Amino acid sequence: MKLYEKLASEIEEQIARGVFRAGERLPSIRQMSQHHELSITTVVHAYLLLESRGLIESHPQSGYFVRESP
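Request: output the structure for the sequence above.
Response:
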C-alpha cells in the first residue's frame, strides 16, 4: 500500500468514527504534511483519492471539507 493510500484510509476511518464530521474543514495540506511528516504531494494524492470516493470535496480558496451524506 502506498503512503497516500495509507493516509487516505486513516482519514476515511476518522470520518467514519466522527473525528471529522460532515461539513467540517479538514486540516490544510501543509498542516497534514507536517503532522504526518509526509510530502505535500503525498497529502494532495490522499485528498484527491478521498474526493474521488465522494468522502470529501474541495472548496477553492477554502480547503477540503467532509461531504454531507447523500
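The longest strand covers residues 56-59.
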